[in-house]
């Protein structure tokens, strides 16, 4: 299942929204804390939505990165407890560049400077650690990418987590984040492929892009809930949204959500049109910096407007805000990506500042 035109993408979003409404009410999100929703994943997979944007020759549903982002944004807007972000962006890209088949079940990615994959005389060895791998203990496959430890060529591996050592953990939202620990583990050579240098860094950027899309999706729902509550909740005989101080805060929240959404959309568009890798990297850096920076203030305003009700277990708001607080730090914080932008600007020089801004 794939889209293409804006009308087709709108239909795609409505389809995902209907699935989420049926399979992801607040009580289902709460029940999945420390775990995941196998029922939701099954519903998305049955309609091909768990592989949108993945080339058909790899086992995906076809489509463009913008289609994958549209699906992910809606799922994030409902706080869907499934590893869709990892599958549709870094895992799909890793499979595309390596030729490995896209996993049919839930999958995730482990990437970072603490991991090395290298060939030895007897085979291939995985060594090192990857902290807080999303949904690792529930994945059917983990795409592992390391820095190679100075060895060439760079390698990636698509591994069964049953053969790896995982230390279970969760983030603030109750989403599984497991540490992968490997001490010179021999891995099957059939699960390993050579990839171009810099692939691990590219997969990390795509993880950051996926988180930016998720944050934008969650912020949209946070804004919707806050506007609705401000219009319905009354104090002193009128809706609280009519008080100037509250109205101002809601306007600030709307600005944060709009800026985050625009930044995420720009980065997805850069990927869709096949921009120069440097320009795409800058677009992702801008998107993750902008969305992560918006997450904290947006959550604060939403909870201030809602009062105590937003923290109750049955309310949707805290499912989203706890994800905002978690996602803003994953695959690089706003400070990390702002520093990346700063280094790129300084390196390019003053004459390139305006062209760089207009490109990304």
Please provide a written account of the structure:
By secondary structure, the protein is α+β, with helices and mostly antiparallel strands. The protein has three domains: 77 residues, Butyryl-Coa Dehydrogenase, subunit A, domain 1; 89 residues, Butyryl-CoA Dehydrogenase, subunit A, domain 2; 161 residues, Up-down Bundle (Butyryl-CoA Dehydrogenase, subunit A, domain 3), CATH 1.20.140. The chain has eleven helices and ten strands. Strands 1-4-5-8 form a four-stranded mixed β-sheet, covered by helices on one side. Strands 2-3-7-6 form a four-stranded antiparallel β-sheet, with no helix packed on it. It has a two-stranded antiparallel ribbon with strand order 9-10. The radius of gyration is 21 Å and the shape is globular. The model has no long low-confidence stretch (mean pLDDT 93).
Layout of helices and strands, plus pairs?
Elements: H1 6-23, H2 26-31, H3 38-46, H4 65-77, H5 84-98, E1 107-111, E2 115-119, E3 124-134, E4 141-145, E5 154-159, E6 165-167, E7 177-187, E8 192-195, H6 199-232, E9 234-235, E10 238-239, H7 244-272, H8 277-306, H9 317-327, H10 334-348, H11 353-359
Parallel strand pairs: 1-4
Antiparallel strand pairs: 2-3, 3-7, 4-5, 5-8, 6-7, 9-10
Summarize the structure.
By secondary structure, the chain is of the alpha+beta class. The protein is built from eleven helices and ten strands. The strands form three sheets. Strands 1-4-5-8 form a four-stranded mixed beta sheet, with helices on one face. A four-stranded antiparallel beta sheet has the order 2-3-7-6, with no helix packed on it.
